[in-house]
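In the design runs reported in the main text, the only information available to the sequence generator was the tokenized backbone. The following block is the verbatim input for one such run; it is reproduced so that readers can re-run the procedure and compare outputs position by position.
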């Protein structure tokens, strides 16, 4: 199956093709199951007139509902392993795989792809300059492969303030938006050694240290900040990250910037 390539924005400079031994990360989105049922359930538990109002699903219940079929998981894992790709992290719902591999392996895995490094104003990203394909027997089990195309166009680099439209509104609530709303300047950050803050997470919600470090690297360029949590109290599942937990930690550490942060995890409610 052939996938077309997105046009590389002109303001991103191509500084050359990756060496075969250079490593990169790709994200494989496996086909979920029961999406229509999940949408229907969401509507019922959110409707005050429904008998199921407030009967929210646990993370395990959501996982069992949308988790890719055993066949899908088998086909995708076998495809990756046939190319020697074993360094992969998954999520609780098992519908995403983030895998590390060399450029040579990636270009063999995805015929047609050509990985280059692009830079703009000090930021560097790796993307494919050409369309790619996956085997037909694998394509039906994938929604997409992330990390090949799409670069932020000019004026929409997530590390910078987005330009407001003529209507006076913006899309997205980024750390700089919240800091501006609370009149926080680059000097309004934690400086006392005994400053601390904490985030509590439940229902097996975890964060990923690498995601946090990347988030702070992108959004924390204009103010002093910390890149990592100082302490985790409870069990932190390795390799698993939840959207709620990730956002909680990322935004408290970018608004309450440069402050020692702890995370408390509890598998229950």
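Verbatim output:
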């Amino acid at each position: 199956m052939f996938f077309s390539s997105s046009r590389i924005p002109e303001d991103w400079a191509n500084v050359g093709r990756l060496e075969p031994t250079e490593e990169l990360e790709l994200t494989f989105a496996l086909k979920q199951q029961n999406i229509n049922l999940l949408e229907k359930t969401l509507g019922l538990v959110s409707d005050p007139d429904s008998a199921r109002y407030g009967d929210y699903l646990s993370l395990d219940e959501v996982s069992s509902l949308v988790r890719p079929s055993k066949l899908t998981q088998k086909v995708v894992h076998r495809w990756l392993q046939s190319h020697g790709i074993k360094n992969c992290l998954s999520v609780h719902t098992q519908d995403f795989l983030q895998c590390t591999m060399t450029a040579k392996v990636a270009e063999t895995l995805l015929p047609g792809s050509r990985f280059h490094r692009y830079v703009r104003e000090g930021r560097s990203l790796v993307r494919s300059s050409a369309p790619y394909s996956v085997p037909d027997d694998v394509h039906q089990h994938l929604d997409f492969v992330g990390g090949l195309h799409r670069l932020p166009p000019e004026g929409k680099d997530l590390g910078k303030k987005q330009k407001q439209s003529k209507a006076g509104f913006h899309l997205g609530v980024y750390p700089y938006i919240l800091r501006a709303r609370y009149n926080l300047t680059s000097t309004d950050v934690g400086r006392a050694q005994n400053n601390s803050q904490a985030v509590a997470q439940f229902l097996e919600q975890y964060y990923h240290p690498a995601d946090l470090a990347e988030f702070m690297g992108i959004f924390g360029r204009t103010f002093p900040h910390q890149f990592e949590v100082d302490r985790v109290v409870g069990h932190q599942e390795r390799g698993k990250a939840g959207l709620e937990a990730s956002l909680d930690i990322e935004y408290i550490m970018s608004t309450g910037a440069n402050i020692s942060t702890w995370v408390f995890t509890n598998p229950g409610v």
